[in-house]
Structures are given as C-alpha cells and as structure tokens.
Specification:
Strands 2, 4, 5, 6, 9, 10 and 11 form a 7-stranded mixed sheet that branches. This protein is mostly beta strands and about 110 residues long. It is about 0% helix and about 55% strand.
Length: about 110
C-alpha cells in the first residue's frame, strides 16, 4: 500500500489549494479514504472522509470550505480547500484502513499566512 500526497504550499488567508492523494497497492475503489492534518503543537485530527460510494463527512471547522472527492479511474482522492484560514496551517495526510492496519502517506505541508 502506498499513498502519496501533493499540492501543499504557502497561501494567503482566503486563498485556495487542492491537495491530491495518489494511491497504489490495493483495490482503491473498495476503500474509504480519510484526510487528516496535524498542526504545530496539535494532535493529528481527521478532516474529511470519502466512502466507496462517494459519501462524505467533514470535521466541523472545515464544513462548507473543504470538499473531498475521488477519481477511481486515477486511484486519486482530492481535497479542495477554499477560504483558507491561518488555523488550517498543518501537514495534511491521507490514510486508508486496509486489513486492519492504517496506512499513511508522507504528508504535504499547507501554510496559510500573509
């Protein structure tokens, strides 16, 4: 199982970024994928999840601003982040629970600052 995140960077408050998570090593379409983040001095938290049928759920602080989606033809999950705030600054990880073990990518850094 391999997960590779990309798309992070430095953005001003109010800006947007689109993160990608490219997956391999498992049958992608049969698994839900979560995005997590870990900010400086904070615990890792779940941000959004997308199920195998495309159902989604979000952590309260990102509802209405972030959108998770998936493209099963490309084995990729996306996280569109709009109206970014300083408190969204974190390293973002995608993750899958596969046969009882949770797998993580290496993460991509998102910094929201003027």
């Amino acid at each position: 199982v391999q997960l590779v995140e990309s798309g992070g960077g430095l953005v001003q408050p109010g800006g947007s970024l689109r993160l990608s998570c490219a997956a391999s090593g498992f049958t992608f379409s049969r698994y839900g994928i979560r995005w997590y983040r870990q900010g400086p001095g904070k615990e890792r938290e779940s941000v959004a999840i997308i199920g195998i049928g495309g159902t989604t759920a979000y952590e309260d602080s990102v509802k209405g601003r972030f959108t998770i989606s998936r493209d099963n033809t490309k084995n990729t999950v996306f996280l569109q982040m709009n109206s970014l705030k300083a408190e969204d600054t974190a390293k973002y990880y995608c993750s899958v629970l596969y046969y009882g073990a949770r797998y993580w990518g290496q993460g991509t850094q998102v910094t929201v600052s003027s």
